[in-house]
């Protein structure tokens, strides 16, 4: 997994956790992604330096730019997950494979594919 894929996974996890719970802590991210709290701390430092996330007290928040990137990543994930599930792939496999697929296409290629398949976002 490259740095960009990892960053997108962290951003997507923060977005999902915040939408489910209203707040997000390092430990929540570690549990969601199956990584150590030390890995989360390091990743959050990288995201903060890139202006994508910030930690206020114990609450992890996305910046506007981080939120946009997280939303785009989540949209790709849901698109591929739905496409795979509709093709007969079981839900667990569809989710795992959608996670890998969401990183493979540029935003432009993804939009064209989604438009071509008539599913948009």
From TrEMBL:
Residue ranges that the Swiss-Prot or TrEMBL entry lists as coiled coil: none
Source organism, top-level taxon: Bacteria
Keywords, comma-separated and alphabetical: Activator, Cytoplasm, DNA-binding, Manganese, Repressor, Transcription, Transcription regulation
Annotated Gene Ontology cellular component terms: cytoplasm
Keyword Chaperone: no
HTH dtxR-type domain mapped to chain residues: 1-63
Chief place of localization: cytoplasm
SMART domains: HTH_DTXR
InterPro entries tied to this protein: DtxR_MntR_Metal-Reg, Fe_dep_repressor, Fe_dep_repressor_sf, HTH_DTXR, Iron_dep_repressor, WH-like_DNA-bd_sf, WH_DNA-bd_sf
UniProt keyword Transcription present: yes
Molecular function per GO: DNA binding; DNA-binding transcription factor activity; protein dimerization activity; transition metal ion binding
Compartmental location: Cytoplasm
Pfam family of the protein (one): Fe_dep_repr_C
Subunit structure: Homodimer.
Stated family: Belongs to the DtxR/MntR family.
Protein name: Manganese transport regulator
Organism expressing this protein natively: Gordonibacter urolithinfaciens
